[in-house]
Prior knowledge:
Elements: E1 2-6, H1 14-26, E2 30-34, H2 61-70, E3 73-81, E4 84-85, H3 87-94, E5 100-101, E6 104-105, E7 111-117, H4 125-136, E8 141-147, H5 166-171, H6 190-212
Parallel strand pairs: 1-2, 1-3, 3-7, 7-8
Antiparallel strand pairs: 3-4, 5-6
The structure holds flavin mononucleotide.
Amino acid sequence: xxxxxxxxxxxxxxxxxxxxAVLDATSLPTEFISLAGKRISGCLGCVGCAADNRCVVxxxxxxxxxxxxxxxxVVFGAPNYYGTLNALGHACLERTFCFxxxxxxxxxxxxxxxxxxxxxxxxxxxxAFIQRVMTSNLMPVVGSLRADGVSQCYDxxxxxxxxxxxVVAAHGFLDxxxxxxxxxxxxxxxxxxxxxxxxGKTLGSILRARENDGIASS
Length: 218
Ligand SMILES: Cc1cc2nc3c(=O)[nH]c(=O)nc-3n(C[C@H](O)[C@H](O)[C@H](O)COP(=O)(O)O)c2cc1C
């Protein structure tokens, strides 16, 4: 099973579209978890997990941890907030600290794909963080993809004539925001869309080969 996680706080989101695009291309059984509406605290550093690699903090994380343990691969996507990972995604990845104690690496060998919704044109800090956490968990990273997000100014209800918003920055003052003004959704971002298909097909191929060799966990 391949687990996709969207760390966006929104149910209809560019992150979830991008994660789904990778999952769909694998042609293998998948599960998808949206962190929208979930309550996930950051790691407290309490080391209550040291003895058995299980986090003792009671919130929505333990159920996600169980699905990670059951997965052969994790496709983790998160948006850029203020030049870094959004807090929900950061908290979720911090909590994988519980999987790394006493020479036990619960996620070791599971494959990872990192997805960032990020307008950074140089190296994405979001991708760098996701990959760093995967590597810390001894998860080989198959690859990564970056796509553009949407500015909240297009949906806040005031964007068309807000002098400090990104709609006016891109189009000048408008009477109303039309479809043609909106940034392209993930499905219309050709390069990231192609990359999602390539990554998904590659991941599916590797996992099928593993299964044939009898080394996949499910
Ligand atoms: C609080 C906040 C801060 C943001 N900061 C950035 C930023 O620094 N760089 C960037 O590329 N996008 C930034 N964005 C835009 C989001 O990355 C964009 O809305 C993205 O589409 C959100 O992901 P989602 O569609 O999956 O919810 C920010 C959005 C919010 C709400």
